[in-house]
Each structure stands twice: as C-alpha cells, then as structure tokens.
Amino acid sequence: MNKRLYVDIHVLQNVPPSCVNRDDTGSPKTAIYGGTTRARVSSQAWKRAVRKLFMERMTETEVGIRTKYVYDLLVEEIRLLAPDANAETLAKSALEAAKVSVKAKKDGDPVVTDALFFISPAQLKALAKLAVEGCKDKKAFQTALNDAPALDVALFGRMVASNPELNTDASCQVAHAISTHTVHNEYDYFTAVDDRASEDNAGAAHLDTVEFNSSTLYRYATVCASDLAKMLQSDAAQAVCEFVDAFVSSMPTGKQNTFANRTLPDFVYVTLREDQPVNLVGAFEKPVVAGSEGYMQRSVDALVTYANKVYAAFADAPEAAWVTASTTVAADFAQTLPRRAMLEALAVEVSRRLDDEVM
User: Can you tell me the mean pLDDT for 169-197?
Assistant: First the structure.
C-alpha cells in the first residue's frame, strides 16, 4: 500500500494595526466567515513570503526562479559551458524541444515566455548541458525540466498551460489566513510637511489616508511529506522542517515600512497524519469574543476544544503532535517544545516514517 504522510501546521498569530495584504482598492483583504467580516491574508501572499525567506536562508542553487526571462537565464548557462557557442540559437532550440514557448512581442523586445515559468537552477543547468551536447531527443529536454525541482517548486508546484507535460504537482497547500474574530477596518489620516516650505506656510504638502486593521489570525498549511520525498533528491525530512520554520516565522511585506507589523506566532500546533490533512478553521466559525485577556488565549482554547471534538467524532488523533506556544495549553493536548526542539523532533519523526515506507 502507498502510505501517505501529511504534516499539518496550525498557527495563531497576533498582528497589530497593519495592511499586510491589499485588494484592488488598496483596502486590507477581508472575507465573510461565520456570518461576520474577518481579516484575510491570501495564500499567495504568504507563499511569496515563505519563498523570500527561503532566498535569505538558502543558497541560490536551492531555490527556484519564477520568471518570464527563462531564455536569458538559459543563454547565460550555455555561455558558461561553451563560451564560443551560439548561445542564443542553442537556447531557443532547447526551449522549443522542451515545448516551452518563447518569443519577443516585437523587434527589439526581450524574448520571454507566455507566462511566468517556475524553474530550478538544476533544471537550467541540465537544459544547457543538453543544448551544448547537441542532444536531438526532445523527450530528454522535457525530462530535464521535470527532474530535480527546487524545494519551492516541489512545494508549490508549477503549471504550464501551453504544455501540461511540464506541470509539477504541489506537495503543499496553504490556506487563506483569517482572523479568529470579527474585524472592522479603520483609517489613518496622515500628512507630510515639505522641509523646504517657507515659514509662513502652515499647510501640509501632502495628505492622504491608509486603511488598516488588527487581528489574531488563524493560519494553516499542509505538506504531503511522502510526495515531497519522491520529488526531491535531498533530505525530505529536513525540507519539511525548512518549510515549517519558514511558514511559522515569515510575514508578507505589505505596508511593512508604515506599520512595522513583523510579529511571531503565540501558538503553533504541528501534527503528523496518515489519513488526510485536517484544517481546524471550524474552531472559529463562531467568532471569538475578546475578554479582558484579549483574543489570543480564547482563540487557543477554541482551537484545542474544536480539535478534540474533531478527533472524537470524525478523524483519528494525529500520529504525533507538538505545540510551541507562549500561551497556556492543556498538558495532554500535545507535547510542548520550544521552536527549535519541535523542529528537531519533527525531522526525526518524519525521517523515521518515510524510511519505514521505503522499507
């Protein structure tokens, strides 16, 4: 039997006045859930934040590149391997063989793909090598673009509408974060003074408003560790921990200079499951009401209570679970560990279970 291993990450995080993720009007994104308005941060925004953290923590060879300028990157790789070759012609031929459409809109414009293309440095190098060697096997070029994905490509997947053979299934899913409680957006009216204005000018040189809210967010993501292991050539357990750590500690950068809203979670609950991922957002279908202690402790209590109800009625309890928290959590809910110790325990358990599956 092909066993599955899922790592679920549940995060509760206080975010102060901020505009982390804006809609087309510049307002903080919201959603109706449980009949009330909630603060919302899109999954795309948080995945981008995770990838940016990967870029800071990992080498260039370990992180994928999402760009329309694949042709230019391939030309550079070919020149490194064969400085005297006609890199432009070889690059176009290689991409055509792989069924990746590239063209310039008009003379003088850069040669680009139809849409953003997600590619790993290893895949670029493999394409360049085949091109320089004069390979005529079109299948080999497509194989080069499917093998050796970078961690973020393997996690978040790749869709190529013009050639579905190059699609990469995502091993990770990220939910839109929502507040555990009802929110009401507010407005900050601000002015700016011209430093060179005359002394008799008491007015502002600029004035505007910015919309914001504050919230206690519930964030959720899940990784199919068994799928990730099949795609990566590196240590899959360590890769899972890299993602968990980045997801927990990242923050989208919308209006960050204005609000300095970079916080860390107060509660992180990580589980290993072999049946299916379980999103626990139902804990907040009834919005949490703040008490004298605010929203966080009540949100933690609601999540723990709901999780126990789900485990009793619908799903088995996790195979293993850990909590990292600055709040009060029932001792029998999950093993409580500091962040680094939790990641170490997770790596050991994921590695053991993946090894058991192989055996």
Answer: 93
- Gap between the Cα atoms of 50 and 28, Å rounded: 20
Q: Find tokens 């206080």 and name the residue.
A: 14
- Which run of H or of E encompasses 192? strand 186-192
Nearest-angstrom CA–CA distance, 33 and 139: 47
Q: Where are the domains of the chain?
A: 6-58+172-197+206-358, 66-149
Instruction: State pTM to two decimals.
Output: 0.93
Helix/strand/coil percentages in the chain, nearest 5? 40, 25, 35
pLDDT for residue 291 is more than 90: no
* pLDDT surpasses 50 at 171: yes
pLDDT band at 96 (very low <50, low <70, confident <90, very high): very high
**What SS3 class is residue 80?**
helix
Q: Are 91 and 131 in contact (CB under 8 A)?
A: yes
Tokens of residue 227, six digits: 């799928």
Question: In angstroms, rounded to a whole number, what is the distance separating the alpha carbons of residues 299 and 307?
Answer: 12
DSSP 81-129: H-TTS-HHHHHHHHHHHTT--EE-SSTTSPPEESS-EEE-HHHHHHHHH
The single-letter code of the amino acid at 144 is A
Average pLDDT value for the chain: 93
Q: Which of 175 and 104 is assigned the larger pLDDT? A: 175
Residue 283 has pLDDT above 50, yes or no: yes
Q: Return the structure tokens found at 328.
A: 């009060």
Token pair in block for residue 34: 């449980």
Residue where the block lists tokens 């240590």 = 235
Structural tokens at position 182:
């009802």
Token readout for 212 is: 């914001």
Q: What does the block give as tokens for 167?
A: 């699609």
Q: What is the DSSP string of 276-321?
A: -----GGGGSS----BTTBSHHHHHHHHHHHHHHHHHHTSPPPSEE
Q: Please state, as a whole number, how many other Cβ atoms lie within 10 Å of the Cβ of residue 3.
A: 10
Residues 13-65 pLDDT 10s = 999 999 999 999 999 999 999 999 999 999 999 999 999 999 999 998 899 99
Of 168, 68, 82, 183, give the one whose Cα is nearest residue 125.
82
Higher pLDDT, 177 or 191: 177
